[in-house]
Amino acid sequence: MDHDSLCPSCWSQINFVRPPVCDRLGLPLAIDTGGLTVSAAALANPPDYDRARAVASFGGLLQVLIHGFKFHDNHNVRRLFGRWMADAGREVLAEADLLVPVPLARWRLLGRRFNQAQILAAEAGRRTGKPVNPFALVRIRSTPHQIGLTRAQRSRNVAGVFRVPARELPNISGKAIVLVDDVITSGATASAAARALKQAGARKVDVLALAIVSERYS
Asked: CA distances (Å), 65 to each of 37, 139, 154, 182, 215, in order?
């Protein structure tokens, strides 16, 4: 594998999200009914963001690549990830005024020395010409890891975690925002971040991620 492509063998090991997808959650659907479709899961528990899109299912080779990127400083894949995200998110990116990465907790940022969501947003922005604002959203408290938590526990864990600084309000008010993250698991983090952006006056908030946890592909 080179830095901006995959060999055929590796390509076949990634479960790219293809239509049909739930227009709200971005999850792949088993049946194509034609046009936009909202899944039963989205109707039963609608997220605070408007739409989500992701490149592929979290697992297999993509999980290995993401872990190498986040935890082992393998940033050679950033251009490849950016290209994938620009393609997977073209629908939401076309309408975006601004890309905003999901911020890390301060202690995680100090330990990792970079925010993977900010790098992904920068690469997607470079591909599409959309501006990126890494300061538009901040975490006002740290949270425990979400691993092993139920959906309800995840929602409680991140409730009230994000806010838009007062100095950034003019940059958010009335804007169509694309929130960028590496993985959508339950959608709790994205919903909490979207809620803060909408409370600050964002007109709409879509989500773009590199991977999504999808039962269909598990």
From this structure: 31, 26, 24, 11, 20
**Three-state DSSP class for residue 143:** coil
Give the model confidence (pLDDT) of 168-212 as tens digits: 999 999 999 999 999 999 999 999 999 999 999 999 999 999 999
Domains for the chain: give ranges and CATH numbers. 8-217 (3.40.50.2020)
Q: Nearest-CA neighbor of 123 among 72, 89, 73? A: 89
Enclosing H/E stretch for 114: none
Question: Stretch 158-164: mean pLDDT, rounded?
Answer: 84
pLDDT at 18: 92
pTM of the complete model: 0.89
- Residue 27 burial (10 A CB sphere; 0-12, 13-18, 19+): buried
